[in-house]
Amino acid sequence: MVATRSFTRQLRELVQLAQPPRWAGPVIILLGLGAAVLEGLGLVLFIPLLQSLGAPAGAQGLQRLLDGPMAAIPPAYATAFLVALLCASILLKNAVNTLNIWVTRYVDGRVAHELRTRIFDQTLSSCLDYRAGVRRSDIATTLGTNSWRVSSALTLLYRLMVSLITFLVFAGIMTGISPSLTLVALGFLTVAGLVIRFCTRQADATGKAVVEENKQFGLRMWESIESLQLIRAFGREGIERERFGRASDSIRLRLLKLDLLWAIPGPVSEIAITLLIGALILAAQSTGIGIASLAAFLSLLYRLQGPTRELMQSKVAFDGLGGSIDDVADLLSRSSTPYLVDGTENAAPLESGIEFRNVSFRYADEDGWALQDASFFVPAGRTTAIVGESGAGKSTLLALLFRFQDPTRGAVLADGRPLTAMRIADWRAQIAVMSQDVQLFSDSIEANISFGRPQASADEIRNAARVARADGFIDALPDGFSTTVGDRGLRLSGGQRQRIALARTILRNPSILMLDEATNSLDAESEQAFQLALDRFAHRRTVIVVAHRLSTVQNADQIIVLAKGRVIESGPPAELLRAGGAFARMFDIQHGRHPAQQDSR
User: Fold this and answer.
1) Which fold does the domain 2-200+264-335 belong to in CATH?
2) What predicted TM-score, i.e. pTM, was given to this entire model?
3) What is the pLDDT of residues 418-465, one digit of tens each?
4) Which of 92, 514, 528, 599 is a good FRET partner for 431, with 20 to 30 A between their CA atoms?
């Protein structure tokens, strides 16, 4: 009983996860019932057909029921009529069966599509940091492989229901022909089912192992492709080839074992029914069944192989797919209740400024504080720089400003209103961020610049490129603005990628601009060109700069100094330099002066 409850619960969880259309189950069941009845009718017609050809009649109940309708047909036309009726039943059965297959495939594709969409939507909208909490390769595996397996499991469930209906219809007809032979057949098949269950009891564990091995294989592929330059630079091709080969071979062996477990029910059920048919033929004389009825009974029993095999394979197949079902359910359950709750108010253009009021934040309960009681004010229309050592909390501040996360304690306010009260899309529409890790799509330069404003005209795109000082090198390219930048923009230099990103930001025309180490990877000439374009665009906008190079923030209106998640200094650069505190020490170190030389300044 425990196994039955577990299997039933697994089916219920599958339906809840897949969310098929409400009409799908009833329609597929009715079509399956229709096909089973039509096929059973066609096989039953063999009784009067063989009798019309001279086979002796038996004394069973179903045979007597057929005698009445057949008496109304002239004997001279009986055989032709029965052949025509048999052909018609086969034709209708195949038509209904084909329609059933089409409906099932339609539902399968729709469920897989909607599952992939849900997973992708959760990946886009959830506040969970997948880069830290979930490997990107795992998301790709779930999205590209396991979502299909869930829809396949649903298709298997529909096939199981149709097979069960067919089994019951055929068993009912067989009982009408010979109750005693039917009882023997069902007992024999039950024993075969127990044998199959014993032989395939490892399917559940193997299926879950396949999911884990597939994730490891996906991770190995992802990291190898992402790190090709590093692998070549360190001469690790041979070692990485060996690691990839081990991962590939491991998943091959797991899948081979699972395929073997899935294959067991087919031959076992076929052998069982073949032996059963032989035994029933030998026992037919003692039952008093006629040749015509025996032929129909054996035909039904032979055709019962398919539904019987489906029923016997179902538990094995569901156990094998259980790992994929659990994987998709787990990923969706992580984000089914979004951490970020959308606000209801419009986000008006910033007038006064942004305030951090006693903000503390940590990514998980077991983690340390990334920010602690941070309080400061970012005035509108001015430039505020955030500086500090690595791990001080600078990137966390930007994440909170963008509402990628919400504070654990305290509040972030814009013009006195909490960001949590505003619509997320409205607030983010006012912001643009640029970082040293420029994200470009493998598309044309024009498409990358217009990413934030797809409806922008060609003249607006060109003007944004001109302001970003990118039009010169773009025009020099063979295809100009139609040039494809390659994977992550690798066909362009670092400075060119930054200016494309700046053109994209200019076209978006945000009122708040965030710069996260935007010039760190540029050479002096590229940085100067980028900075000149940026200064022109940033005029009278609210700019928040995160930088390690303190020379790039000397023109800021104020500087916020962070250390271990706390604000330890704030004020204009010149004032902080005169104060001789943390900012002054950092400035001296970067300019080659030992901190002990501060007193001689």
Assistant:
1) ABC transporter transmembrane region fold (1.20.1560)
2) 0.61
3) 998 998 888 888 888 877 777 888 888 898 888 888 888 989 999 888
4) 528
